[in-house]
Amino acid sequence: MLKEYFxxxxxxxxxxxxxSISEVIWSWIGAFWGISAVAYIHYNILNETDLVMIIGSxxxxxxxxxxxxxSPLAQPRNLIGGHVFSxxxxxxxxxxxxxxPWVAAAxxxxxxxAFMHVTKTLHPPGxxxxxxxxxxxxxxxxxxxxxxxxxxxxxxxxxxxxxxxxNNIPKTRRYPEFWL
Length: 180
Known about the structure:
By secondary structure, this protein is mostly helical. The protein has one domain. The protein contains eight helices and no strands. The chain has helices spanning 2-7, 21-45, 57-67, 76-97, 101-119, 125-135, 138-143, 149-167. Helix 4 packs antiparallel against helix 8. The longest helix is centred in the N-terminal third of the chain and has 25 residues, at 21-45. It is flat, with a radius of gyration of 18 Å. The protein starts with a helix and ends in a 13-residue tail after the last helix.
């Protein structure tokens, strides 16, 4: 029985083939422009405010929406819903359980995953967005539920616009696969 359990960890398929150099280049271009857009706003427009525009989870979103564009987890509904719902859950977890940050962190991520499943908005970076709401700086905590709008919603929307523009330039790429 124990051997059977550990045999499950061997995997069942081979690693997928490499992508073409064209795919690599277009992924790079999309990620560069998507992160550039939110980073520019963060560092040059919001720098003197208490608002933020760029959060670590956007790096993981860039991998999906520019590098794995056919994945169901990379589609617009998942990108926007995953970040916004997870941000709200993370903020509420911090506000209700912040005196025990380890509990707040676990509740935020686990609840965000469950909620994204139920709403068909599963986007792995959303788990990080929820976690950032708990472990983030005082600047993040001071945003409260605004964190769901700026940076989570607005930043994801800017990255989506870039994904729509860049991912549809080459004939070999098409984004999105679905909207709703």
